[in-house]
Specification:
Layout lengths: L5 E7 L4 H10 L3 E2 L1 H7 L11 E9 L11 H10 L2 E2 L5 H8 L9 E3 L13 E7 L2 E7 L12 E6 L2
Parallel strand pairs: 2-7, 5-8
Antiparallel strand pairs: 1-3, 3-8, 4-8, 5-6, 6-7
Helix pairs in contact: 1-4
Length: 158
Amino acid sequence: MIDLKIFKEISIGGLTKDQLLQQLIEAGIQFNKYANTLFEHPSFFPQDKIETVQLVKIKSADFDLGNSHSYQEIVNQASSLGLSLCPLYLAAFLRLEYLDQPEEPYLTIASAKPENDENYPNGFYIRNTDNALWLRGYGGDDYCEWPSGNEFIFLKSI
């Protein structure tokens, strides 16, 4: 049985993309090239209305999918538990809310890939490494093997 306890409850929305980016920069958040690419995508569009959401954190190993499984298999398992994908921009709000993130593991924010192009980044993950907080974009095909310690963030339906 997978533990679906609430990891964090955060507010998202109410800021423009530029305001959100400015707050991340002021907080000292680091970005990689993929993150910058994702920020420019039309689906990275924070809503005007502020919404409170509940997030659930699940380890890849908790899905009991064996050693080799795709991102879609993880998403399907989460969906069967009543969890949903996050909007792309949620990762930036979570990064700002989780400034005390421990060094490991990194957290992959489960969201729909914004482009059906293998060269385009899939989504975001957040991590704390070498005393630096990151909002990073990642790429990969559907057949990437996810480390068993990797943790995913999903939305809990209210």
